[in-house]
Fold each of these.
Amino acid sequence: RFETNPLRDSERPRTERRTLIKQTVEETVTENKQAVSRDIKLRCLQRGLVVSRESICRKLRESGRKWRLNKSIIKKKFTRTIKPEQKTQLRKICQVVASLHRQPGSTVMWEDEMKFPVSQVAKKLWGLQNEPGVERTADTEPCITAVVICDKDGFKAIQFFERELTSEDYQFFLMSCLHRFRTEGVQKLKIIQDNAPWHSQKEGPAKQLLSRLVQPSIPGWPMLNFIENTFSPVRLKYRSSIKGTGLTERSRNIFSIFK
């Protein structure tokens, strides 16, 4: 249910408008510790208040909050450096990506998995100096695992599983994608993936084909997988979306986020 005010934003006195915006900002952050400026702006619009995200951030800073690391999950900043023995593999990945982008009919894709409901909490949030962070909550809904492939232009394939992913599931997914991509005119393809246990291929004819198709990334470096950048807005939209009740409805709503 939306909270509305019959007065137009331009009809309100300036003092009243500032008070309402300040009150809305404080209420939103108090109710949801992970709220960002976009969520607060939506709440303001529901109350008939037109305000920029820049102004919202200014109000948050005036209240003593800063865009801080979530103390509950982040103990120290990421300072990992690449090892000398990993430089050869990194160079190979860069060469593969660069060469395929120059060849007509060739492409590079990235693959990864997401689990729903999203149990991750935000790495950063608007918090006070001595305010505790937000802890992860236990999952109460059945897990849906989404296997996703994307290229530089967007998502290309997605499949949902009602259980933990296995090597057989992953192998079947890749073979189905390979057949579809070939019919769409992709002549040469490389899929960059991480080193998850279910990515190990089972023995058989499919392994020989897929071993030439996939390129493992460097262990412990998820930022080298381009798809990780696309998952962040998906998680953000999922947290603020309608989840649905049944498994079919939930899957349909999740799929609509990827479209």
Amino acid sequence: ACANALRLDPQRFAATVCTVRTALDTADFTRATQLLEQARSAGAPEPQLSRLRAELAVASGHGALDVEAVQTFLRTHRNDVPLLVSLARLQLQAEDGNDADDTARRVLSLSPENPEALYVRAYVAYVDGHFGTADELLDRAHEGARTVSLRARVAALRGMLAYEDRRYGNPQALADEAIAADGRCATAHLLRALIASRDPSAQRTALEAAAQGTDTPAEAIARLAMALGSNAQGCALAERYVRMAPDGYDRRDVDDVRSGCR
């Protein structure tokens, strides 16, 4: 239906939004980029165009690469909630927990109980080891989740909690639930990789799926780079990690991989 609407009226921005989101849902980032360029050339309105660009950056796992671009646009659209949500998610990808949490809190001051902002805060709490807080925030995010993507990420992050502490559930069951909801959920594939820590082949397969999924955590890229070492693919992934999370938690180990690259 989206593609048909776009063919009938290529300058209709609502149809472009629909087709871009469809491309993002299928991790077809090249197609989404092409559609956004067509929309820009056709004079698509702001701030809607920048919102979609930010959503593409998040889905592609750009992290720090696009933080500054979103911040620049926010200088003139200071309280644009969709852009602030994308900024928080990019900061989370960049493993900049303090800024991600601050931005998520700002979203919640403008849009109380915003489920994406609650999810960002839950992820930061999980990374910081505040599992009870993360669990409570995930309950609230789950209650407000309206997209398949967010429902999958909530299940996957709860699975990460359960991997650390079984009081929060069965990590394998939660990974399966997340994958069933959204097969391209990178966080769910990262969880599968953690569960498969004693099976290097299964772990690598899960990490490769995470690297090719949507909203990929930098941790998945770092783990795969370290598993591959200083071959061509490992070196490319190490560079990807540095671009998306230049001050990330795994920077030192990733730099060890990079030291063996040409």
Amino acid sequence: HNNLFFLPSDIITELWESIENKKYLHINCLDAETIDINGNLKQEKHEDYYKYFIFINHYRNSYRIIHEILYSLIQQKTITYAKIRKTLTKKTTFGDMISIKRGDTEIKYCWFDKIDSAMKDFLSQFDRMLKGRATDWKVSITLMTTQFESILRDYNCIYGDGNTKLHGRSKQEIREILFDELVDKIKNLSSELGSKVFSMDDIQLFKYTFTNKGLNIRNNIAHGFYVPQDYTCEKAVIVFLCLMRLVRFKNMYWE
């Protein structure tokens, strides 16, 4: 469960309010700024800055435990590719077939098809670690990140109001919604469903992992900002945990 490794959003809010109430001089007199991967400065609200700071430091303190759990379970063969595939395709929405059109051609796939290669590579890197070999997390992180977004877009297309929006002065141009907008749509969709899909803690995790509210992994991959050394096991694990949270998706027709 998320709360084993990530602070709940209400706890983070309480911690921020305790900081705010102490009225520290630097909060009242200085701006909060963050520096992105390319060295660009960005001004932030103190609230946003401290909430992310609290979140990421708690995760980094928990990461060693998460890593040891995964390492042990993979070593004991409790977690294997075959078991993940069987569980996700038989017991979750990841096994439901989806049909789309590519021109005149009908294509059928399930969500596990999208993450199949990512799961194989993620587990293979842990296997290499078990054997004392060098690891390379580029494929795992890139595939898991892009397919995380792909699955969100599928779900929003099926159950939400689609992945495009009108923009421009005339509001007659159509463009794909941005990733941040997509996460907000999923958040709103969850609210409409009575929080049957994702909690605020899940949405917080997704934003802090993939957007410029936090690690900004999705943007850094999409724009080619990462160099090989940026693809770390720590990032792979948090993206893997985000991907596994998608099992909370429910097919509304099951209700």
Amino acid sequence: CAGGLNQVDMNSKSYLAFLIPTLVVALVAGIVYRAWSAGPYLAPGEEPDSPRWDQLAYLVGGKERLATATITRLVERGAARVDPERDEMLIATDHDSVLSPVERAARQHLPVSKNDPAAIQKLMTETEAALATDIHDWEEKGWWRSRSSARTRTLLSVLPLFLVTMVFGFGRLIQGIQNGNPVGYLFLVLMLAFLAMIVMVLVQSPRTRAGQQIVDRYRQRHQQLRSGDNFESAKLPDGSTAATAVALFGTSCLTASIYTS
């Protein structure tokens, strides 16, 4: 080992004893940055003005949850129905009531099949566009991050671990392979580092701390909606019981009857 770290065998304890703590420090640095950049909490007494089901849906799960809640709302109010005989295609029905902008945007793209990813993606994009004013307002209030801001935050939180992996890990791996040295342990450590980076990217959310507080508050208020069996007793005044339940808790709270009735 007289030549320093560059002469240490790839599987030697001395090099791994250097690399693993360095990776851990980089990972912790990314986590600390993510916590630091999560944004402020709601101010004392600050409360959104009775957010609608579509606003809650977007705050919880972005355009994917918004599209799901919107479809539920259309079925709930009789503006659409599921046709099980046509591969569970969602089709529009004759409907005279006034629809919200988000509901109109979704209904214009019917019929749509669950097996048509392109059509579903377009529906998600259009419903998101119909909510653009609200999304911009949340960004101004600090409840939500723009796409560019969310991407930058994700990149910076992963950057320390990525740099350590590439500079101290990947280069050593290539050198070890070229020299015919055993690199099994090093390869395993690097795979774990890349897995940690993937997890950090996947779990990121555009919600700020304030946005998360809003979601938590309304989930607590509407705990009864976690189960479709409670929809009658927990019926909301505006009739959006099922849509609100899906917005806050996902489709697992629904009973089959809401799609077929």
